[in-house]
Amino acid sequence: MPERNRVTPEGEIVAIPLRGLFMGNRGCLHEGRSIVRPWKTRNWIVCEPEFRGRRVVQWNPGRYTPLFFHDEAVAFAAGHRPCAECRNRRYRAWCDAWEAAFGERATAATMDLRLHAERVEGRAQRRHRAPWADLPDGTFVHTAGGPALVWADQVVGWTASGYQTPEPRPVARSAVVLTPAATLAVIRHGYRPEVALTTFTEPKIAENAVDPDFGGC
After folding, report:
1. Model pLDDT for residues 13-48, shown as the tens digit of each residue
2. Integer Cα distance of 53 and 166 in angstroms
3. Which of 5, 30, 60, 82 could form a disulfide with 91 if both were Cys (CB 3.0 to 4.6 A apart)?
């Protein structure tokens, strides 16, 4: 039976069979095998499933709680950013895009402070509105059918079983956006999220899917 350690685009931690391309953490969220808090720290990161041979056992007492994401776009919608250690190349690309967007080479702490203010409202996910035409590829929005990925001229619904059949992207009005505004700015300024959409882009090979019982760095 799946453990409660998968993260949805809405930032919730759930138990679903869907395996992920990435792992990450928000600090120590568990007691025993139960999630007792939605986050512990502000540095919500996205990690590689394995790094320099490190393997972290799930539910390790007092250690961070490994979380798992279908892909990078899902992780970003939930409010995470690339890890500076195990994903250093991607982290530097993120920092480059952040600098281009905001005019400063921000520290991880500065970025995390801004992201935290934009991703949560109390204990719930903070959402915002933006014109459909302004949303870059890799944005997640909320629709009547649930969370959906914006990619090119289509919108692709996401469920506990993965991506669904694409539909045409609206061209008028605005969308309810799940991805934090700062992350949208980073994507607009050159950072391209890795997504598990074989229709539009080459995904990571299946062997890189995360083992749901173990973590990386």
Report:
1. 999 999 889 999 999 999 999 999 999 999 999 999
2. 38
3. 82
Beta carbons within 8 Å of 141's beta carbon, 6+ residues apart: 135, 147, 148, 150, 155, 175, 176, 177, 178
In the beta sheet, which residues pair with residue 34?
Answer: 31
CA dihedral for 153, 150, 82, 205, sign (positive or negative): negative
Q: Tell me the CA distances in angstroms from 30 to 10, 33, 201, one per residue in order.
A: 19, 6, 35
Q: What is the pLDDT of residues 79-110, one digit of tens each?
A: 999 999 999 999 999 999 999 999 999 999 99
Exposed/middle/buried for residue 94 (C-beta within 10 Å: 0-12, 13-18, 19+): buried
Q: Please name the amino acid found at residue 102.
A: F
From the number of C-beta atoms within 10 Å of its C-beta (0-12, 13-18, 19+), residue 98 rates as: buried
Give SS3 for 121.
strand
Tracing tokens 């700015």 back to the chain, one arrives at 185
